[in-house]
DNA sequence: GGTGACCGCGCTCACATGAGCAAAGTATTA
DNA sequence: TAATACTTTGCTCATGTGAGCGCGGTCACC
């Protein structure tokens, strides 16, 4: 611990090599190095603790159960799924891994939800891409926030809800309105529209919700889709926002910032997510660390699917 | 083996997680998963064999003994030192690692050489930088090939021999002539010079040699130092050369190419290296793979210090 | 359908290993 | 210097673990 003797550390290394690479017994090593066999055993434990010997599990489906347990306890979550973030992987690959785990989690969820509220975005697009065919039987998927396709990409907001429903042998109900409108009155008008009101009513009482918080960055999908300008992002940041959930921007306490903007946003309220039996948030990458903390700390989600670095961040936060 | 069942692989993963991360005994795992304890033991062995569980030793001084053994056997070497090539490290860091190992090897060499012939170059410069003070007592270091400083860098050819001697509490004999001269006659004249002849005689009977083969690239030190032009490099490549040893360019069989150039090169002959008790070659990086193969296959060195990727390459070569 | 080859399984048994403990050694303080 | 707290060491013992064996099931080939 305190010694830091290079000579001793080198001995540790020799012992570790003999044991793990040379397949010698601790007794044999002790004989060769003039040590008792118990000393060798302790040195091996020390080498593992010091990280000289690293035992890691390498598998795409591997989950970090220790972190999951810590997260559920720390934030009173129903469940957590933490996948290892490979050092060599970029953000896109990481998102894909996390999305895959989320799809798997959803498929394994028991009792299977009869109605599932879903948001949209890059992460959910990836989740939809990994959902196993036949993951459910006759699920009813409901789009919980607006997202009329102003997006340039072919995978529109409505598409991911459809795909998830399709693979679950079920039906989909879309919310064919913009995510954010320009006038409060427009929102009110749309909401009073019968077809929209019906969807929202449905969306507010789903058995499960699946969404991905958005980071407050200039390349967010809300910016790319044209609902926000770069200036809006700066203004939100100045107002203390750390990101959005189903299009609603929140601060570190999970409270809505900029009420005026929020009143122009179409979709379920944060309260609806808080009330959900399974409210599953999916988030990957450093950009989402802060918004992740906000949603788990304020109970907007009760299930979190993420990568181990985000999990570490959440556990470090006081 | 042949099954490739994803379900079973997932079970393997679960078992591995429980054992290595959950610190459960094989018995407990068997209980939980309705397996016998022996099945669990076999699954763990399988998981390790399949690479799902990876046990690796992480330490700057770590050596790959299995590869060292394979190399010494395959090429009839006296000794081999193979250090792991960290995936994240660049070529410079890798060279430093290998150089450090070489310095250590030299210091541990028993019986300690009374006379040591050294070459020069970027790699040997790194070796000199890592040689421990007091690594020998009264060693006599002799420069084995020409290298009168035409180099732009401050670390001249003679400098590394001096440093190695200095740290070994010994003396140094330099070879103050160019590496390659322009006329055969010049070489003959220089060699007949008493002072040069004496050094060469000394250099030809060293107890140990330490050198690093050079790759045939346009940024080789021989080019940088002005002994060769870029065109010369291309000509040598066309003549079948894979690199140089103490300034002498060789082909894949370890034979000198371009006799005319070789006759203008000052220093010990390849035969002198082949005759040495310890002829230690130090080489790191992909660029030196081919020249490495040439020198170990043709017996120019009998000790090789290198990285694990080079070792892999040498073992793959039929 | 019969027969032999093969494979995976559970088990015995001998060995390897870690937890826990008391003695020896070492640092710390009065 | 002596007393004390703390660490390290070697050991006992219970437990964990892997090699090897025989059984039963499966498959291919006759």
Automatic annotation (TrEMBL), chains A, B:
Keywords: DNA-binding, Transcription, Transcription regulation. Residues 65-316 form the Sugar-binding domain. The keyword Kinase does not apply. InterPro entries: NagB/RpiA_transferase-like, SorC_transcr_regulators, Sugar-bd_dom_put, WH-like_DNA-bd_sf. It comes from the Bacteria. The lineage of its organism: Bacteria, Bacillati, Actinomycetota, Actinomycetes, Streptosporangiales. This is Sugar-binding transcriptional regulator. PANTHER family: TRANSCRIPTIONAL REGULATOR LSRR, TRANSCRIPTIONAL REGULATOR-RELATED. Belongs to the SorC transcriptional regulatory family. It holds the Pfam family Sugar-bind.
């Amino acid at each position: 611990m305190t010694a830091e003797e290079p000579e001793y550390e080198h001995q540790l290394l020799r012992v570790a090599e003999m044991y793990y690479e040379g397949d010698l017994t601790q007794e044999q090593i002790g004989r060769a190095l003039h040590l008792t066999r118990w000393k060798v055993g302790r040195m091996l434990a020390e080498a593992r603790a010091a990280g000289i010997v690293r035992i890691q599990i390498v598998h795409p489906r591997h989950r970090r159960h220790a972190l999951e347990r810590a997260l559920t306890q720390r934030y009173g979550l129903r469940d957590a799924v933490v996948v290892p973030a490979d050092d060599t992987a970029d953000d896109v690959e990481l998102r894909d891994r996390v999305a895959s785990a989320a799809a798997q989690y959803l498929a394994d969820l028991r009792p299977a939800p009869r109605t599932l509220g879903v948001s949209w975005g890059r992460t959910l697009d990836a989740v939809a891409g990994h959902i196993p065919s036949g993951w459910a039987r006759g699920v009813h998927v409901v789009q919980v926030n607006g997202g009329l396709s102003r997006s340039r990409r072919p995978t529109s907001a409505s598409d991911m809800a459809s795909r998830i429903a399709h693979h679950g042998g079920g039906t989909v109900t879309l919310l064919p309105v913009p995510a954010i409108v320009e006038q409060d009155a427009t929102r009110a008008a749309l909401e009073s529209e019968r077809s929209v009101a019906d969807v929202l009513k449905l969306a507010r009482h789903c058995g499960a919700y699946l969404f991905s918080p958005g980071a407050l960055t200039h390349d967010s999908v809300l910016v790319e889709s044209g609902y926000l300008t770069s200036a809006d992002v700066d203004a939100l940041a100045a107002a203390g926002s750390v990101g959005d959930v189903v299009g609603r921007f929140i601060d570190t306490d999970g409270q809505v910032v900029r009420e005026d903007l929020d009143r122009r946003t179409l979709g379920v309220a944060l309260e609806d997510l808080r009330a959900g039996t399974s409210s599953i948030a999916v988030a990957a990458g450093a950009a989402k660390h802060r918004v992740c903390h906000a949603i788990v700390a304020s109970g907007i989600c009760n299930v979190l699917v993420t990568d181990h670095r985000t999990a570490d961040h959440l556990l470090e936060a006081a």
